[in-house]
Design brief:
about 350 residues; about 15% strand; eight-stranded parallel β-barrel; two-stranded antiparallel ribbon; 14 strands; alpha/beta
Length: about 350
Amino acid sequence: MTTPFDPIKVGPYELKNRIAMAPMTRSRAYGPDRSPSPMAAEYYAQRASAGLIITEGTQPNVIGQGYPFTPGLHSATQVQAWRQVTDAVHTKGGVIFAQIMHTGRIGHPANYDTPLTPTGPSAVQAAGQTFTPAGMQDFVVPTEMTAGDIRRTVQDFAAAARNAIDAGFDGVEIHGANGYLLQQFLSTNANTRSDEWGGSPHNRIRFTTEVVEAVAAAIGASRTGLRISPANPFNDIVEDDYTQTYPLLVEALDPLGLAYLHVMETTAPDLTPLLREQWNGVFILNPATPGSRTGAEQLPLIEGGAADILTFGQLFMANADLPHRLATRAPLNEADMSKAYGGDASGYTDYPALDNS
């Protein structure tokens, strides 16, 4: 029987266990040009016993930034700063992928150095508010991306992936979940386009497939992963036909030979076994745990074959040596989310609405 503590090969890498650190936005990129600080190197290196670390969401271009103080991977300064993080993790024997995240319409002009309007597949304002340096503010009506904008953004993802490899990352995870740009294109409410990127499910998966294909061509499919969250309503997303859309997406991407598919369960866990069966590569799961967090009680999902790897968020924040504690059934610290999810922008964390891990 496979256990969570058995090694597994992901792309060219032999992971020492099947306990992965989930991507969690930290909003602590206080270095120049939105670059990570030495604190980030310490934070990730402390957790290098994970089979795989997936970093906080990292924007591929300026307009892709949705929250204050999130890091980028689109400048030489950022690449150099990330190098201290990857070096620190590798010194501890870890494997680390950078998550590339474009927030699309989820953002605010106040979160850019110079006022810009967030962009999205259509000029449809998201309901709700977001963090800004001046406090919570309503989302704005995004600028609808032109065909040229879309093609440039695809290439920005590819360029950010190349920058990630230059910075020493072992690979990248493309963020296609949680109501950000890729899921906005997949959705039936944020995407009202009538061209080749809108309308039918076949058209609405096009942007995601183009991004994944471009990144895979840039750095190799074996170093490219994708995260999705079918039917996740976060950030005012509606996916009326998700039972058609996601199988089509997986069918299109499976032949590429990606490093993995990372599924975040929210309101549609019944779809997970179907995607698991359809996907021929490594299957990473962030299981649905309503009102709780991923813990030892979810480990049987690996033993039973529901997933190859599980991602943990809150427990990795509170237990840097989480794999050891899970393996030895040692006591677990619980994260104090009142501090991680503060009212000021510097305390913002991708928890719990953005990931139930």
